Structures
1.
Amino acid sequence: MISRITGKVLEKGLNYLVLDLGNFCYDVLIPACVMQRIDELTSSENKISLITYHYYQTDQAKSIPILIGFLNQVEKDFFEIFITVSGIGPRAALKALNKPISLIAKAIDEADLSFLKTLPGIGEQRAKEIIAKLQNKVGKFGLIQDRHEQSKQAPKNISEEALEVLLQLEYKRNEATAMIKNVLEANLRVNSTEELLNLVYKQRRLK
């Protein structure tokens, strides 16, 4: 079981890193709430150390080892308690955790259905199940200092750039947002705005 990994960042995607460990490289999936702060703890030599959640994804006759990375043990602890909710596995949690953990924990504690429903893949029923399972159990996670980036002018990400393009092409905002969300939920590795827009186009052609 791989519990920690340290290496040089060889490639950085929307929600994954490829780490060079010397003689071999590892793909490590990263929740968006963690990826937002990756640069803070990447050394000047482009190296980083991650706490990892290691599991095997079973796909028909094969079993694929998956690593999900976190900056500290508390983030991993939250991930592990989050996936105890019925119907939320590691992949679903990876997609859902796209806001600061402290805010998600606060929403759970305050039974804020509206906030929880903004998390990718979390509908009203799932949000209710999260609250029923985790309310009053996640208080310590609300103390994580992971919100300071909100006070800064954040650079545009791939989704925001793609949205701007679609709006210029005269798509309605809610339609464009839905198309982008559907593509990102189906494709964990989208590396550029151009790739995202191509996937949106292919998705529309299939309808």
2.
Amino acid sequence: MIAHAEAPLTITVFIRYQLDPFKRAQFEEYAKRWLTIIPKCGGDCLGYWMPQEGTNNIAFALISFESLAAYEAYRARLRGDSEGMANFNFAEENRLILAEERTFLRPVTV
């Protein structure tokens, strides 16, 4: 019998944002900036999604990492990244995000 090496556990962070619905355009700017900042700091940005129809105050993001340790290293790099911190400050100063929830997902199938 051949033993199979266990694949490393990847995680995907699912972020659910509650937005100020009158600031969706600013949130879109904020989200687009992450598309270069996240990979630079070590994350695999799968994308950001904004309302098209229906609910006008909820947005989502998916970011994958090789492991929980890789996520923690990413968070540390992000705190030291001037573009990342500027983007966090932009969102805070403009009060774009009313609430944010993070769920850590693991793949069931690959």
